[in-house]
Amino acid sequence: MRVYASHPERSRGRRHAEAPAPTRSEFQRDRDRIVHSSAFRRLVYKTQVFLNHEGDLFRTRLTHSLEVAQLGRSIGRSLGLNEDLIETIALAHDLGHTPFGHAGQDVLNACMKEHGGFEHNLQSLRVVDVLEQRYPRFDGLNLTFESREGILKHCARKNAELIEAREPGGVAQRFLSGGQPSLEAQLCNLADEVAYNAHDVDDGVRSGLLTLEQLETVPLVQRYLRETLADHPGLGGKRLLCETIRRMLSQQVYDIIDASEVLLAEAAPADAEAVRGHAPLIRFSPDMRAASHELKRFLFANLYRHPQVKGMRERAEEVLRDLFQAYMADARLLPPDFAGAGSHARACADYIAGMTDRFAIREHERLTGRKLFV
Ligand code: MG
């Protein structure tokens, strides 16, 4: 590991002091706590773009998180960063996501408008800090500062102020003072983007909502599609798609390694702490940044706003709105252990956010007698 990697021995520690583990570093221990959490297991039935019940071929939040961990560790190893911390942050980064992906987050935020709002990054932190209840002495998983800092990748100012009041100089301080998180956290953020851009292209084509012809208009895809066909004339179908995406992923990984090496050499941070005072040091090159943005714009216009996805989105919003109203109106519908987790509205949001897609659908049917998803 390089000097600017996060070192478990120099961790800022846990909120509740614990004796060190005999065989594992503090970051390995955090990773293990994530893997054994119930929120992590539920990621298998949560989706981002496609609903879990639309088919077994599509990414779920769990496979997405594994892909982010793979990309992150692969880049992090080349850059001499701490792989255990990268893995922990990657596996935990989506724990706070609602059922039905972004549709769920938006509708829950709207429902919670008068009650402090809902942000999925903040919710991921809430899962590991409060909602997991598996230890005798504390709520949450009692993760290290570095893992929690990486999990809270965005945060609105008003929420940062609330966290800062509870935990002065803690994980929210950088949103108020403008600092950066560890390099491992910066890397996970970028690996997340690389992963979802690539797998949404893959799922988009395999679902039939996107075509390779359409994708040829996107420079980043076009480049590797043409390269693949030049090396393998006549290749088509699944192999062409997979090879194009494989090349696109590899080039993005190499680009991040090369661009970040240059920035790290220029900035030469003396240690992991010094990283926090610099501009972000884990970056794409300007060309790849622009190309990645363009792919993202394409996916927004053609996949996330596709009429079929939109239809699903509307029904998903209805399910969550109805559930929120039902729980708000009758607290007895919530499981007893959710009653004490803050305000009643917050308990409703916590309960709904923790649901898998299919549980939300079933619960909606049970409470309303209406069947929105067949
Ligand atoms: Mg993600």
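qc> The chain has a mean pLDDT of 94.
qc> done
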